[in-house]
Design brief:
It is built from eleven helices and five strands. The chain is α/β, with parallel strands linked by helices. The protein has a five-stranded mixed beta sheet with strand order 3-2-1-4-5. Helix 7 packs across helix 8. It is rod-shaped, with a radius of gyration of 34 Å. The chain starts with a strand and ends in a 5-residue tail after the last helix.
Length: 235
């Protein structure tokens, strides 16, 4: 039941061309409740942030004295180990994290964590053909993102946690109770139903029925199934 909602900020779009992580933000979710536990780190990427600064607002000067990924990897691994990860556009973040872990000869996300839940994929299934970025989902599900002026890993992880809970609301509410049926349930309707009235056939109707059976018996040469069952079925 433990999930970690995770987001990263990077120097660019492709770790294969040398881009690195500059920020990691994680919040913990247990039993669909935010616990208040979080992991957050700004990182010195060992390269210039270049044009990515306009996305996340983190300058080379700000990141110059921040730790390298190798210095925080132990704390990060301890925080995410064994948890399911909830990530928006998971392939992007997992690719960068696995690159950082791989440079340190460390196990990848697939070995450290359980399931990776991609909220972008979930959103596309729920809202095909619509914008499904984080701002659009906050608007769709009533999550207040008024403080989000730039991308920020911790803030975006906190917003994504609320979006994920809203997107999956009701999935864990399939409990069955027999103590107090809800109004309008089958049991409730049965209690309010009037007593069943049994109407017996009159003497004339019974006589007509007997005549019909007699006619069927003659035409079928004694093979009237109803007559055969009369001696077997309870009155």
């Amino acid at each position: 039941m433990r999930k970690v909602i995770l987001d990263t900020e990077t120097t660019g779009l492709d770790f294969r061309t040398g881009d690195r992580i500059v920020e990691i933000g994680c919040v913990e979710l247990i039993g669909r409740q935010l616990t208040g536990q979080r992991f957050h780190a700004y990182l010195n990427p060992g390269r210039l942030v270049a044009d990515s600064e306009r996305i996340h607002g983190l300058s080379d000067e700000f990141l110059a004295d921040k730790p390298k990924f190798a210095e925080i990897v132990g704390d990060f691994v301890n925080f995410v180990r064994g948890a399911d990860l909830v990530i928006h556009n998971a392939a992007f973040d997992v690719g960068f994290l696995n690159n950082e872990l791989g440079l340190l000869q460390h196990d990848g996300i697939e070995q450290l964590c359980g399931e990776v839940i991609d909220t972008l994929r979930l959103a596309r299934e729920m809202r095909p053909g619509k914008k499904n970025n984080l701002n659009a989902l906050c608007s769709e599900f009533g999550v207040d993102n008024s403080t989000r002026q730039l991308h920020g890993a911790l803030l975006d992880a906190e917003l994504l946690a609320d979006v994920y809970l809203a997107m999956t609301r009701g999935q864990n509410s399939l409990e069955i109770t027999f103590d107090s049926p809800a109004a309008g349930s089958v049991a409730d309707v049965a209690r309010r139903r009037q007593p069943l009235v049994v109407v017996c056939a009159s003497e004339a109707e019974l006589a007509d029925h007997a005549r019909v059976l007699e006619q069927i018996g003659k035409e079928s040469k004694g093979k009237c199934l109803w007559r055969d069952l009369e001696g077997v079925l309870p009155a």
